[in-house]
Amino acid sequence: MPVYVQHEVLGKISDVFNADALWQAPGMSLFARQPLLRDLLERAPREQRGRDATRCFSHVTLALPQEDVDDDRHLTRGARVRDLAEALAALHTKDFGDLLKGDEVRYDVVGAEALEPGQVQVKFGHAVYLPAPGEKPLYMITASRDSVIWKAVCPVYPHQRLALLGPQIEGASHAVADWPFGPDAAILLINDGPDGPLEVQVRPKDGYECQFDPLNGYYTIKARGAAQRLLLKVTRTATVAAPLRPAAASTIAAEPVKLAGVWKARGGAITPADAAEPTAVPLARTARAPQESDATYAPVARQSVRLAALALPRLSRYRDTGAATLDVRLDRHLAPTRDDAVITFAVDADDVLHAITPAGRQRIAAPASFTPVDTRAVQLTPVVPAMADRYSALLHLPASTAVPVAAGARLVFGRGAPMLAGLRVLDGVGALRSATGEIDNADRLGLSRKAFSFEAVDGGYQVTRLSATQALFHLDQACGFVASITSDEPYLLPPGHHLVAGHYVLRFDA
What we know:
Strands 18, 23, 24, 25, 26, 32, 33, 35 and 36 form a 9-stranded antiparallel beta sheet that branches. Strands 22-21-20-19-28-29 form a 6-stranded antiparallel beta sheet, with no helix packed on it. It is mainly beta. It folds into 3 domains: 6-124, 2-Layer Sandwich (hypothetical protein PF0899 fold), CATH 3.30.2320; 139-236, Tumour Suppressor Smad4 (Sandwich); 261-287 and 296-509, Tumour Suppressor Smad4 (Sandwich). It is built from 5 helices and 36 strands. The protein is elongated and about 95 Å long. The protein is 9% helix and 36% strand. The longest helix has 18 residues, at 79-96. Strand 32 (472-475) and strand 33 (481-485) form a beta hairpin.
């Protein structure tokens, strides 16, 4: 691979702010002195014809010992740093004026903790660019290992041709945090101007592959035959992405009333189990005793109910219960888990959403997409206004749980319905936490012990709400809002549509 970044460290400089001492050693033979800045620029021209240089580099970065730079800032407010940059630019223009070809000479002086006293780090080359005063970036480059925690890498300016990204700043234009590849790998960014897209290449080409994911808007870079990967996002600063528009809300039902929540037992006959596990419901509603038949069902099941998504609640509705944090953990298959997770979605008492991975914690908002491992992406979408007082967002599950349903059987879904307990992935210790400890059952937030019953019939599913305090929402095949189910009369749900009860978005398939 060509040398895109020339990097050298000059040593034994008595005064690192002396431009003449950095530029050229006086009165000494070529073999008796160390190469200084002028020699380095001569030996590595930008362009040459045969052995003769025809053009030289004009952008140079100098790194001085950090302590020297700090002292200069304290004592002279950075005057020596500015004077050094101006003096070196003047020497550069004087000695290489015929090789500049109209290029403006620019120097940047920074501090570096790794340098010893008397050392100066020099960097220039095809992939070293210093912006003009007032020049604004054309692109911003960010990188991630898990699609959740994105870290800034560098800007790319309109007149900048190349940038080289790598594991260490010494051999690249910019270093990438948490670099997953070996020291031989590098990412080359090629900018052909504002009229074309930024090109991304990986070197060496035979050891790595780079593919653009148009759905998520980033590049996935992987080592061939290995699991290491890096996600690279190129954001054009002049472009503002249009937000995803949720499906239009139906006018069938009015929006639910915003009410505070407390732990409240159901009306009707109270069993010891009911009293020990009340449900958080709005105070303004009263409960009624559920009705359920004793119907049996045939052994052949052709229909199924699938957990398609989780409706992340607004915990502020249940502030009086002490609920402080709800965690949704997903494993490597992006299925809900109670064990080690590759990504966790958390809702706090102020309804703020965070994504948590081994790389850190990041505040998020819908719509968003995350690919923590090389599997399908997990999507976070906003809710419509009719559901916004109860829920913060919908977390779609690419690896979901399904339960077969036989025609003619009437089944019940709720905290007290054991047959469909496999769909209630947040039921148990650890998902919901209070400020003082853990709350055993997250399903008490808005899900009745008997929420609704359903039966597969011709044309879909017949759904009957079993509790007057249970909020039910009908969503279409694409999870667009259709209606709020506010009546206790049977309601026909078409095949492939969704029903939201508590945290759970259930898809009823034919």
